[in-house]
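Dear colleague,

Thank you for sharing your sequence with our group. We've completed the structure prediction you requested, and as agreed, I am returning the results in plain text so they can be pasted directly into your records. Please verify that the sequence below matches your submission; if there's any discrepancy, let me know and we will rerun it promptly.
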Amino acid sequence: MLLVDDMELSRYTRPDHVASVTAVRDTLLGDPGLVCVELPAGSGLILATRRREG
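Please find the predicted C-alpha cells below.
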C-alpha cells in the first residue's frame, strides 16, 4: 500500500512542480496494476495498492 501526499495541483505555482506532480498522479492513476483512490483531505492524498489478480 502506498500513500502519497501533496498531490493537490492548486498548491503549486511553479510550472516544473505542476509538471512533476501531474506526472506522478498520471502514473499512479493510470496504472492498470493499481487500485487508486484520491482522498480530498489535507494537501491531496492518493492511496494506491496492487490490484488483486483472479
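Summary note from our side: Residues 33 and 46 are 15 Å apart (CA to CA).

Kind regards,
the structure core
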